[in-house]
Here is the input.
Amino acid sequence: MRLRLSLVARLALAALLAWGAVAGARAGDLSMGSPVEIPGGTTAQGQVVVGAPLVVDGIVDGDVIVVGDDLTIRGEVRGDVLAVGGQVRVESAGVVRGDALAVGGRVDVARGGHVDGESRAFHPDAKRIGLLDLALSPLAFLVRLVSVLTWTILALVVAFAAPRVLVHGSAEIGRRPMRLLGIGLLWHACLALTLVLCVALIVVFVGLPLMALLLLLACVVKAAALGAAFHWAGSYIAERLGGDHASGYARLLLGAALLGALRLVPFVGGIPWLLAQLIGSGAILATWRRPRPEVLAVR
Here is the structure.
C-alpha cells in the first residue's frame, strides 16, 4: 500500500523527480529537438526528450522525461514519467508502472489507461497551492521562464567568450562541491556587504559608479557560475545516457533545460537553482586563475 504524500513531499517530488529519473535511467536514450516514437512490439531503455514529443506504443524499461512537449503513452512504461511544459496522456491501452507527473501541464488518463503510482499535475494557472497559500500566476510563471532563458543565453555568451573558464569550473564542481558551496556563500556575503557600502557612498558621488561596476561583475560571475553548473549537470546526464560525444554546448543546454525546469516548480523550484548558482560561483572563483590545458574547451 502506497503512503499518501504530504503537500511538501509532493512539491519536493516535482523538483527532484527530474534529476532522480535522469540519473537513474538505465542505459537510456537522449534526444533533442526530434520527435521520438517507440513502435509497438519493441522495447527501449529510459528516454529523455527535449523540445519534441514522445509517443510510446511499445515498452520503455526505465523512466521517461519530456521537456517542452507532450508525452503520449499507448504502450507500457516500467518506471516514472515526467513532462515539463507539456501534457502526459495515458491512453486506453497505456500503462505506467510508476508515478506520472506534469509540471506546467496536465496528466490525462483515458478510460482503460492505468497508472500504478500517483498522478500529479502542477499547472501555472493554479491560483493556490494547498494550505501554503502560495500563488503561481501566469505572470509569475512567465517571469521565471524569462529569467531562465535570459541566464541561459548569458551562459552561452560566456561559453563562447571564455570556454576554458566555464569548463574548468564544471570539472571542479564534480570534485569538491561542498567546498565550492562555502566559497560561493562567502562571495555572496561579501558582495552584499560591498553593495551596502556603495549605497552609503552614493551621497559623496563615489558609490554610484562603483556600484554599477560591482553589479556588472556580479552579473558576469553569475552567468559564468550558472554556465559551469549547467555544463556539469548536462555532462552528468549525457555520460550516463551514452552521450559521451555530445558537444559542450549541447551539454550546457541540457543542464539548463533540467535546472530551468526545476526553477519553474512552485515553492521548492528555487532551491536547486540557488545551489547551482552558489556552487558555480565557488567553482569560477576557485579555478579562474588556475588554467588546466588538459581540459578541452566548449565546442
Notes: Helices lie at 7-24, 138-161, 163-173, 177-201, 207-240, 248-263, 270-287.
